[in-house]
Amino acid sequence: MVELTPLLDAPALVVRNEDTSLVIADVHLGIEYDLYHSGINIPSQIAGRMDRIKGYIGQANPDRIILLGDIKHNVPRTSFQEVDEVPMFLSELAKSAIVDIIPGNHDGNIEKLIPRNPDINLHDSRGAVIDGVAYFHGHTWPGPSLLKCKHWVISHNHPTVKLTDNVGHTITRQAWIKAKLDESVVRANYKPEEFEWSDPEIYIVPSFNELCGGIAFNESWHDDLLGPLFTSRAIRLEEAQVYLLDGTFMGTIDNLRKYSREKFKVPTDKSRKYRRRKHYRP
Question: What is the pTM of this model?
Answer without folding.
Answer: 0.90
